[in-house]
């Protein structure tokens, strides 16, 4: 193999220099493209989320009846602004529920009540079915959804295996899910600002 370099100024030498520049530029671009996702994964906010840092949420624009989802510890965190009708629907079906008084530890002590919340109007939960980890969907009373009973009071339905939960995340009997939806630690740091992932005593 002839290892002799082309003479300076020759057409062969100019072609060689052009090839080296193109190859170097392509390699540099690839290195930058590879580095960007890697660097972003090391951003402080991403590291904090991965470590389970609390998530602050402004709920001032949350409309009555609306469900908003935020990410906490890689899980969907639900926030629902319950209407008076939704609160009323939590009554009258305790005999149909597995754990109507929320005696099992799926919630902090300050949410172990009829509404499973600090503020009855605002429901905070982890939106993961306690059966096999699917994410249920919100189904309102009178929606006509054939997957829920005709006398459905409103709540959540898991399409994976048919588990149903009322508007406080309490599971109905004879369903695959064994327990109520989990209520995460949370606190109000202002009237319309929630901190999910940290309880009221820690936030005080």
From TrEMBL:
Membrane protein topology class: Single-pass membrane protein
GO cellular component, one term: membrane
Location of the Rieske domain: 89-195
Keyword Cell cycle applies: no
Amino acid composition bias (Basic and acidic residues), ranges on this chain: 94-106
SUPFAM superfamilies listed in its UniProt record: ISP domain
Stretches that traverse the bilayer: 20-39
EC number annotated for this UniProt entry: 7.1.1.8
Principal localisation: membrane
Subcellular location: Membrane
Database matches in InterPro entries: Rieske_2Fe-2S, Rieske_2Fe-2S_sf, Rieske_Fe-S_prot, Rieske_Fe-S_prot_C, TAT_signal, Ubiquinol_cyt_c_Rdtase_Fe-S-su
Cofactor note: Binds 1 [2Fe-2S] cluster per subunit.
Region entry Disordered, spans: 94-114
Keyword terms of this UniProt record: 2Fe-2S, Disulfide bond, Electron transport, Iron, Iron-sulfur, Membrane, Metal-binding, Transmembrane, Transmembrane helix, Transport
Enzyme class: translocase
GO molecular function annotation: 2 iron, 2 sulfur cluster binding; metal ion binding; quinol-cytochrome-c reductase activity
Coiled-coil residue windows: none
Note: The Rieske protein is a high potential 2Fe-2S protein.
Subunit structure as annotated in this protein's UniProt entry: The main subunits of complex b-c1 are: cytochrome b, cytochrome c1 and the Rieske protein.
Protein name: Ubiquinol-cytochrome c reductase iron-sulfur subunit
Organism, scientific name: Rubrivivax gelatinosus
């Amino acid at each position: 193999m002839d290892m002799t370099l082309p003479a300076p100024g020759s057409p062969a030498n100019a072609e060689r220099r052009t090839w080296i520049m193109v190859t170097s530029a392509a390699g540099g671009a690839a290195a930058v493209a590879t580095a960007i996702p890697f660097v972003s994964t090391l951003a402080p906010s991403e590291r904090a989320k991965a470590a389970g840092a609390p998530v602050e949420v402004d709920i001032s624009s949350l409309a009555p009846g609306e469900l908003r989802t935020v990410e906490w510890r890689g899980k969907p965190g639900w926030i629902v602004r319950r209407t008076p009708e939704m609160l009323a629907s939590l009554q009258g079906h305790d005999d149909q529920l597995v754990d109507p008084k929320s005696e099992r530890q799926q919630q902090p002590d300050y949410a172990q009540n009829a509404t499973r919340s600090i503020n009855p109007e605002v429901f905070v939960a982890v939106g993961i079915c306690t059966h096999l980890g699917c994410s249920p969907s919100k189904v309102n009373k009178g929606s006509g959804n054939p997957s829920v009973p005709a006398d459905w009071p409103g709540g959540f339905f898991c399409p994976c295996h048919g588990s149903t939960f009322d508007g406080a995340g309490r599971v109905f009997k004879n369903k695959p899910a064994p327990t109520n939806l989990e209520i995460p630690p949370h606190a109000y740091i202002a009237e319309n600002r929630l901190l999910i992932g940290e309880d009221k005593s820690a936030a005080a």
